[in-house]
């Protein structure tokens, strides 16, 4: 469903992606792990066309992601942004229904609100939350709203950027479980970025480790613990000693 081939991206002298190659089969959940600043978010943004690669190819469903109708392309995606990225000046339901209120997915406001309330319920939030503003919500509730927004238009492909960062371990567990359930029930293709190993085990079918701009290891989550890859082992166990330099 998603294929990145030898993707390079630099910002000035900062050569972030150095030949990234990765494949995500339809209906599967891929989790990308790696240290902070290794280019995980940049890789997601390349697929969405928010960042333009310097070279390489990105195919979504066999088609070049950088060509064709952008609106139709993006209508297939849902995204939970790192940090939630809710619009503070909009109520919760308007955030959730954001894409249902404009563009090619536009529908009448009353219908969009109904869908928003249904999606809020799906992520464990009561209808009363719909008319609150993001600043009135806890961090866990904001994540749930972001998740409801990501699934509101029933996308075929969903991206989750650091879905549990900033949450306590119990709330992280709840969000991980929700993500897994929703991806399975929607039959969506999912790509998640995280450095939370609990998320990896809860969400992934396949795992890919990004380091030095390339995928150092990729395989099924069940093979992660005996990969024999020193980079992956160091990351999984959070060791200070190993091939990954701790000082950056
Ligand atoms: N728009 C941008 N302009 C310049 N540098 C950027 C931009 N986006 C990301 N970077 C740089 O690219 C590197 C990777 O960033 P990012 O993908 O956000 O890391 P992470 O793996 O933590 O998600 C960082 O060094 C970051 O500073
Ligand atoms: Mg990031």
How are the strands of the largest sheet arranged?
6-7-8-3-9-10
Largest sheet: 6 strands, mixed
The first-level CATH class of the largest domain is given as Alpha Beta
The shape, in one word, is: globular
What does the radius of gyration come to? 18 Å
Distance between the termini: 34 Å
What is the CATH H-level superfamily of the largest domain?
Answer: P-loop containing nucleotide triphosphate hydrolases
Keywords: ATP-binding, Nucleotide-binding, Transport
GO molecular function: ATP binding; ATP hydrolysis activity
Organism: Pseudodonghicola xiamenensis
Protein name: ABC transporter ATP-binding protein
What does this structure look like?
It holds the Pfam family ABC_tran. The model has no long low-confidence stretch (mean pLDDT 92). By secondary structure, the chain is α/β, with parallel strands linked by helices. The protein contains eight helices and ten strands. The protein has helices at residues 40-48, 70-74, 92-96, 109-122, 139-151, 169-186, 197-203, 230-237, and strands at 2-11, 14-24, 29-33, 55-60, 63-64, 77-80, 157-161, 189-193, 206-211, 214-220. Strands 6-7-8-3-9-10 form a six-stranded mixed β-sheet, sandwiched between helices. It has a four-stranded antiparallel β-sheet with strand order 2-1-4-5, with helices on one face. The longest helix is centred in the C-terminal third of the chain and has 18 residues, at 169-186. The chain has two domains: 1-76 and 155-241, P-loop containing nucleotide triphosphate hydrolases (Rossmann fold); 84-154.
């Amino acid at each position: 469903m998603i294929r990145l081939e030898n993707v390079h991206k630099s910002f000035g002298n900062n050569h972030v992606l150095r030949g990234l190659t990765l494949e995500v089969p339809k209906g599967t959940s891929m989790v990308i792990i790696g240290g902070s600043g290794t280019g995980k978010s940049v890789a997601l943004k390349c697929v969405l066309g928010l960042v333009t690669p310097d070279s390489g190819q990105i195919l979504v469903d066999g088609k070049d992601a950088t060509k064709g109708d952008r609106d139709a392309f993006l209508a297939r995606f849902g995204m939970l942004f790192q940090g939630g990225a809710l619009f503070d000046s909009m109520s919760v339901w308007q955030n959730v229904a954001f894409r249902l209120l404009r563009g090619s997915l536009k529908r009448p406001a009353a219908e969009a609100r109904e869908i928003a309330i249904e999606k809020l319920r799906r992520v464990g939030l009561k209808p009363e939350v719909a008319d609150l503003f993001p600043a009135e919500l806890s961090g866990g509730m904001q994540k749930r709203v972001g998740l409801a927004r990501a699934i509101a238009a029933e996308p075929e492909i969903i991206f989750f950027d650091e879905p549990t960062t900033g949450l306590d371990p119990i709330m992280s567990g709840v969000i991980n479980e929700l993500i897994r359930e929703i991806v399975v029930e929607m039959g969506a293709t999912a790509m998640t970025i995280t450095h939370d190993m609990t998320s990896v085990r809860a969400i992934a079918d396949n795992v890919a480790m990004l380091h030095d701009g390339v995928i150092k290891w990729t395989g099924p989550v069940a093979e992660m613990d005996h990969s024999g890859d020193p980079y992956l082992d160091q990351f999984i166990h959070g060791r200070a000693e190993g091939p990954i330099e701790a000082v950056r």
